[in-house]
Specification:
Blueprint lengths: L1 H18 L9 E7 L5 E9 L2 H6 L11 E15 L8 E6 L5 E5 L10 E14 L2 H5 L6 E3 L5
């Protein structure tokens, strides 16, 4: 009976441990500005994701994202990038940015927890994720310019 109880306890412990989300460490933050074609500027405080581990974690398991903030994914070189929403609980606008800081694609109002691939559509050096609807509300569009020290 004791062996059976130990097996049950062990099995339940493994299930509980594996079922818990990874707790994200506080990422480095910086300021990012988007300049629209009309000359308006919009400031964001962004968390930097510039390592493989940080890019893999992204905004997974977060229940909210403060207004005026986002996550800024930086890649070592310009390349075709594909994102997904697996384990991401909040809808996002995903902004793909080339090495010169120009927005090359925006995927608006992505679906939480979807495993559907969201491609950049061309070479990109960075990705900015913000709350769903922000790009439409602020008039941010493809061709607009992103200013951040990592893009210079």
């Amino acid at each position: 009976m004791f062996k059976k109880a130990c097996k049950v306890f062990f099995t339940l412990s493994v299930i509980i441990i594996l079922g818990l989300p990874v707790v994200a460490q506080e990422a480095e933050r910086s300021q990012l500005t988007i300049e629209t074609a009309t000359g308006e500027t919009h400031e964001f405080e962004v968390e930097l994701a510039d390592t493989n581990a940080e890019r893999a974690q992204g905004l997974m398991f977060r229940r909210s994202l403060e207004e005026g903030t986002g996550m800024f994914f930086l890649y070592p070189r310009s390349q075709r990038i594909s994102m997904w929403m697996k384990n991401t609980l909040i809808p996002l606008d995903i902004i793909f940015i080339d090495e010169g800081g120009q927005i090359v694609r925006i995927a608006q109002r992505t679906i939480p927890e979807s495993t559907t691939s969201i491609p950049s559509g061309g070479p990109a050096k960075a990705v900015l994720e913000v709350n769903a609807g922000v790009t439409q509300r602020l008039g941010i569009d493809e061709g607009d310019q992103v200013h951040h020290p990592a893009l210079q």
